[in-house]
Amino acid sequence: MTIAPAIDATHTAGAPHPTLERRVIASAALAHGSTHAIELVYAALLVRIGLEFDASLAVLGVVGTAGTITFGTFAVPSGWLVDHLGPRTVMTAAMASAAIFSMFVAVSPNLIVLAITLSLLGAGIGLYHPAGTTMVATVATRRGMALGIHSTAGIIGIAAAPAAAIGIAIAYDWRAAYIVFGIAAAVVALFIWRLAPSREQVAAVVAHRAQVIASATAPHRRTTPPAVRTWFTRPLILIYFSAIGTGFIYRGSLTFLALHLERELDIQMFGWDAEALAGATASLALLAGIIGQTTGGWLSDRIPVERAILPYAILTPIFLAAMGLSGGVILLLATASFAVCSWAQQPVMDGLITDYAPDGAIGRSFGISFTLIFGVGSIASTFTGIISERWDISVTFLTLAVCGVFVAACLFALAHGAEHRRRALPSE
User: Fold this and answer.
1) Same domain, 108 and 23
2) Are 335 and 321 in contact (CB under 8 A)?
3) Which of 11, 163, 206, 379 has its CA 20 to 30 A from that of 227?
4) 117-128 burial by CB neighbour count: b if 16+ within 10 A, else e?
5) Distance between CA 2 and CA 418 in Å, rounded?
6) Residue 91 near residue 190 (C-beta atoms within 8 A)
7) Which of 190, 210, 230 is the last residue of a domain?
């Protein structure tokens, strides 16, 4: 399925109505923020959980890994379910599962049971990404901006979770935090089932877009995938290699960003010490990521998507290298610039996956991509940890820059192939 550029098709049979689009974006954004908020609760409450069970950080890390593994791997079955049941059903199931398993986590009597319940909770929220992203990407007319808003909601969930969870834990205890987040997930599940479009409505929009793009000339193509799209076409493989690389950079950079800033920033501001300033700078990078999500989505609505991602992909390794080689104000600017370019690629990449997926397999395509990003990409923490221990954290960012060059090369090859196919299309 290939999606056409933004068009005014409100009154055309099968075209999405603006009200429907707003419902889609609202429900998906709320669910996306909730998913990442619940994902971060354990990390926020790590110390309090460790005190209750008298567990070391190493043991707590192993327990937490049980949830992160299922969070990444359950994207694949989610994609299959999306293609067969529709995104609304899977999104609702994800939030309902999160509600139920959050309660299980809250009553866990020991670390073994906690690991099991966290793995169940990870599986539940792991169903979300292929479903929510598929729904937004296939229904929204201004797809790039819609995906940018959707991704921004995830960042807000990541940023809000620690403060909310710790606040509840201080007022009551860490178990109460999971109960509150579980109740919130149940409310979101009801909201999605009420507002999100049915499988039939989504299918009607997809069919309409396919008809529009079939008659579109080269200048009006949003993307230019091959005429025959399979799992083993070269462009889709390039996209998946890029997804692995971006996931590796995301996890590897975030794992050691605060520590790197603490050691190398070497500037004074507002009388803060190095640790406080490093934490504030890491938060600034997260906020800069919101700018990236918005600009990346905006650009992909105005030029071919294969071209839109290239500036960000090319600049990302440059800023990563600058982070590894610099300190002070230059490091601060490089970090914020890296965050913009890195996060900007996400909504653009989602658009590429939508259009280059095999027919009838958008959900499964997102399932594979999110498994690669969250699953395969998660080994970056271990890999970069070894590099940082053996050499230095600055070498870690230089290594990630090399990975960024690989991603840029894959995306450049993708864009080159798209341009070749675009020139073969009628121009008017």
Assistant:
1) yes
2) no
3) 11
4) bbbbbbbbbbbb
5) 13
6) no
7) 210
Which two structure tokens, joined as six digits, stand for 51?
């005190």
DSSP 217: -
Side chain identity at residue 87, one-letter code: P
Residue 95 exposed, middle or buried by CB count within 10 Å (0-12, 13-18, 19+): buried
CA gap 293, 11 in Å, rounded: 30
pLDDT digits (tens, 9 = 90+) for 258-305: 667 767 666 555 455 555 565 566 667 777 778 888 888 889 888 888
* Cβ pair 69, 119 in contact under 8 A: yes
Q: Is the pLDDT of residue 2 over 50?
A: no
* Total domains in the fold of the chain: 2
> Which residues, 6+ apart, have CB-to-CB distance to 215 below 8 Å?
none
Contact, 234 vs 416, CB < 8 A? no
Using CA atoms, how far apart are residues 122 and 199, in angstroms rounded to an integer?
Answer: 25
pLDDT recorded at residue 3: 37
Residue 345 phi, psi dihedral angles, 5° rounding: -75, -20
Q: What is the pLDDT of residue 206?
A: 64
8 found inside a domain: no
Rounded Cα gap, residues 275 and 316, in angstroms: 25
Instruction: Give the dihedral sign, CA 8/11/12/16.
Output: positive
Q: Are residue 274 and residue 240 in the same domain, yes or no?
A: yes
CA nearest to 127, candidates 83, 79, 161: 79
- Residues near 146 by beta carbon (within 8 Å), at least 6 away in sequence: 21, 24, 25, 136, 137, 140, 297
